[in-house]
């Protein structure tokens, strides 16, 4: 009973949210580098290139580029078995479409992975985590263009070949299904590098980009297995279970279709086939998706080895049209508040049991080993007069979710490889660009305006998580 002996305990980040060094080592400009700061209800904006006078928090982030050795030592002190991060595409191919990679960028990740391995930490690496080169955005409009498939596969092959023997666990696209909410231009640019123009059919753009990314992923999986059969390449799904608001059969059907609409990406990753429900939706909405017979074969032969997913919260939905026979789901308008769960300061519903439900849903549907690669609690952390950070709220959140996943292992027998919480050190928030929305066990002295020493300090949760790892999750 309990977690496997080789369970991968650790933490997860994204390169653009912590590295900084945005112009160092030959790095090019990414989507994240043209994303301004948000906060106080003001969303982040995408500017047309880097504009003087704007605040771009990812440019420095927490300067992991120069601090990684000390940070990795702190992770080692906690006993991490795994550290999930991403490779910034623009460090390897600054514009995204060069013929030859940037050696200085490759060397940075060599050194980073060596530092991890020296601490007994397995790197778990995402290839594309909201870091598409701005050059690809401007020249090709991101994954709206099929030529970007080959550019991504080239990038993936370079990484697989360079880090063979250092990195066993890979993922292709981070939270590929966020773009389910195709009404959001932000998701289209962040996930797929698409700049929406007036008159664009955003639904068409989303589904075509998603198919192109799924083909790119499948070809990358095949390449990895050819380069090193021991590599495990997974997908990464943003998992928020969508409950029916009530036991009204129409609410049940709405939630059923919502789950299928949000998670068909995983169906393709794991089975190699586009569900008939999605094909019917394309037909109904007059969408013309370019998917060749050769690409269909690639999808079938390039299925993933495991399912990585993030879990922060659950959703709920309610049917609002008793005459609608499609039960079509649009995330921006079909979610409702769940009165049975509490929420964080940022409105994220806190639902530990939903993680157990999610593990079972994923296991029953796709029958692949799983890794929870993001789960955490964003909060405003205050330093006490004694100079400590008493983040019991974070401990409570994480403990309840680890207990839920332990129950899924013990009572339902799901195959769980590891847990990398988000994020072990304070980083720039992807959604808001803030520093005050903190997740880490390690405090970083920096505020929303970019002020601070960047000094690191352990929070109360640091020693708590260390003990969780020491006891393999038995003592929370």
From TrEMBL:
One cellular-component annotation, GO: cytosol
Gene3D superfamilies in UniProt: Glycosidases (3.20.20.80)
Cited SUPFAM superfamilies: (Trans)glycosidases
Keywords: Glycosidase, Hydrolase
Coiled coil: none
GO biological process per UniProt: carbohydrate catabolic process
Keyword field contains Hydrolase: yes
InterPro entries in the record: GH, GH_1_N_CS, Glyco_hydro_1
Listed Pfam families: Glyco_hydro_1
Molecular-function annotations in GO: beta-glucosidase activity
Keyword Lipid biosynthesis: no
NCBIfam families in the cross-refs: PRK09589.1 (NF007154)
Family membership: Belongs to the glycosyl hydrolase 1 family.
Name the record gives this protein: 6-phospho-beta-glucosidase
Species, as recorded: Dubosiella newyorkensis
């Amino acid at each position: 009973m309990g977690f496997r002996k080789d369970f991968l305990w650790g933490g997860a980040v994204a390169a653009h949210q912590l590295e900084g060094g945005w112009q160092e080592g030959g790095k090019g400009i990414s989507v994240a580098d043209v994303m301004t700061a948000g906060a106080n209800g003001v969303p982040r904006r995408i500017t047309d290139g880097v504009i003087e006078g704007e605040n771009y928090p990812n440019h420095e982030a927490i300067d992991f580029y120069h601090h990684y050795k000390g940070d990795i030592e702190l992770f080692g002190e906690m006993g991490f078995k795994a550290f999930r991060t991403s490779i910034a595409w623009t460090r390897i191919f600054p514009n995204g479409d060069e013929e030859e990679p940037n050696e200085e960028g490759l060397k940075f990740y060599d050194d980073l992975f060596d530092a991890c391995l020296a601490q007994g930490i397995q790197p778990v690496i995402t290839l594309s985590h909201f870091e598409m080169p701005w050059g690809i955005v401007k020249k090709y409009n991101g994954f709206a263009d099929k030529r970007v498939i080959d550019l991504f596969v080239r990038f993936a092959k370079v990484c697989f070949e360079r880090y063979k023997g250092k990195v066993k666990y890979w993922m292709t696209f981070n939270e590929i299904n966020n773009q389910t909410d195709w009404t959001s231009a932000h998701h289209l640019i962040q996930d797929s590098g698409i700049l929406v123009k007036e008159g664009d059919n955003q639904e068409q753009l989303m589904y075509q980009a998603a198919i192109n990314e799924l083909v790119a992923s499948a070809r990358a999986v095949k390449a990895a297995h050819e380069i090193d059969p021991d590599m495990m390449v997974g997908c990464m799904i943003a998992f928020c279970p969508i409950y029916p608001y009530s036991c009204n059969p129409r609410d049940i059907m709405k939630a059923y279709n919502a789950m299928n609409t949000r998670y068909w990406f995983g169906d393709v990753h794991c089975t190699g086939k586009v569900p008939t429900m999605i094909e019917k939706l394309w037909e109904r909405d007059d969408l013309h998706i370019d998917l060749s017979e050769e690409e269909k074969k690639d999808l079938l032969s390039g299925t993933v080895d495991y399912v990585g997913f993030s879990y922060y919260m659950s959703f709920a939905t309610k049917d609002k049209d008793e005459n609608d026979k499609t039960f079509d789901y649009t995330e921006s308008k079909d979610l409702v508040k769940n009165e049975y769960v509490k929420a964080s300061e940022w409105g994220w519903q806190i639902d530990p049991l939903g993680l157990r439900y999610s593990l079972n849903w994923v296991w029953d549907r796709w029958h692949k080993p799983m890794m929870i690669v993001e789960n955490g609690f964003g909060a405003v952390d205050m330093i006490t007069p004694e100079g400590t950070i008493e983040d019991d709220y974070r401990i409570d959140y994480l403990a309840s979710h680890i207990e839920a996943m332990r129950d899924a292992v013990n009572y339902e027998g799901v195959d769980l490889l590891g847990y990398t919480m988000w994020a072990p050190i304070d980083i720039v928030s992807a959604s808001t660009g803030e520093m005050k929305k903190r997740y880490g066990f390690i405090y970083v002295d920096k505020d929303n305006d970019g002020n601070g020493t960047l000094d690191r300090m352990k929070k109360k949760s640091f020693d708590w998580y260390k003990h969780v790892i020491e006891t393999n999750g038995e003592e929370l």
